Amino acid sequence: MLVGVSMPDYCHAGRYLLRDRTGTIMTNSTLLLFLITCVSSGSTSETPATKTNVLLIMADDLRADLESYGARVATPNLTRLSKSGRQFDRAYCQQALCNPSRSSLLTGLRPDTLKHWNNGKHFRDNNPGLKTLPQWFKEHGYESRCVGKIFHNWHTPVKGDPVSWSAPEFLHYANHADDLPKISGMPPENHARAPKCECRDVPDNAYFDGQVAEEAIKVLGQLKEKPFFLAVGFWKPHAPFNAPKKYWDLYNRNDIREPIITKPENAPEIAFHDGRELRGIPPNQVDFTLEQIREMRHGYLANISYLDAQVGKLMKSLDQLGLGKNTIVIFLSDHGYHLGEHTLWAKTSCFELDARVPMIINHPGIKNPGMKSGAVVESLDLFPTLIELCNLPFPGRLEGKSLVPILKDPSAKITNTAFTQHPRPAYFDREPSKQPTHMGYSIRTEKLRYTEWRNWKTGAIEAVELYNHESDPNELANAYRDTNLQKEMNEARDLLQRQFPRSPVK
Ligand SMILES: [Ca+2]
Hints:
Blueprint: H1 31-39, E1 53-60, H2 76-84, E2 86-92, H3 98-107, H4 111-114, H5 133-138, E3 143-148, H6 208-223, E4 228-237, H7 245-248, H8 276-279, H9 290-320, E5 327-333, E6 338-339, E7 345-346, H10 352-355, E8 356-362, E9 373-378, H11 382-389, H12 404-408, E10 418-424, E11 438-444, E12 448-455, E13 461-468, H13 486-499
Helix pairs in contact: 1-2, 6-9
The protein binds calcium ion (CA).
């Protein structure tokens, strides 16, 4: 286990959640072995004209709760991807909210640079001429396609980002609450009782992600003769927790325990939010019982396994089409998630559970496949990484750094820092003022997380947080007064203030 990386915590020590790990989610063991075989030859077997394909797979609201990250969760397909690629154990999003996070990683620019920190606007409102990652591939000889949720833009007149793609997007925007079971006749009984939970014995394609997997496989078949950038955006494990029953049945509720439901000692109130995505809007918010919390955590695990099974179908298809040897596969989430920890629900905080994302890159030429990286990296590093791997020109300004050195050497480090930010109020665009009152800026180093809460108008620092991940991986105590950490805190603060100068954000 890496020092300074918090481990997912669902069940009592020494007990394993899974009842049964056989069955459909245990399929497809051949593709990545094939990729490993290809590694030794790198790209030398390609003709000069051959372009390397890109398959970008995104999850929604998935914190680093995968088997390969040490969680007790059934994700065999993503474990195989990790074993034949490079898993990044310290990868961080730039903001823990769908739209700004996705806009950042797909443009290679930070939310402050885009001036885009909420879900209600389109990132092109302030940045009409930007070239996105898929658009850049499209303009350099690739067929770029989108199946599922990649961009988050759907509250706006323009849905998604049509200019980024070579063909119309599929199931690219919707309300999550509309992901209801689509079957003939009456849906079978719902065995779940807790809020946001649904457990019905229905096939995978009753819900969005099964449909996304089927369409993505169809599109892969259409693209096999041409260089492609295929982005597949799954809707899970985002709430509602409505995976088909067979995924719920992988876990025993009695083995699922409640989280540590306490705020970190000495943490400022501004670090928190009201969890309205799951708890409702004040003054009509609900407080969950421990029984409900355990059922919701069960549902989140079921959603993750459902997602993993869809990824497995996609990887199997890539294998069957013979595309694995010439396709870069990336898996990552838009941001992390809270399931009651710190008293928080869902996202929109600067804490580790929200900022950290699972990220795996599998490249046919990767060195030492299966060896994990402990380097601190950012989601927006993906853009420069992919254009370097595919020999595309540099599109001008990008704020991330290529991770190719880490694909060559898992012990390599690049900047070894990551920045995440979040405004207050969390959903300021829905407030009468339409403006934040504060912005939280957070830096993660290998050892620490340091966060400043600044007044939006003046830039004045009104609260700080410091978490020592070597001794406190769950961020249970704000250690900003710890005299033993002052030197390292000052170094982190200097790096943060160099990235985000203390001037008012306009
Ligand atoms: Ca999300």
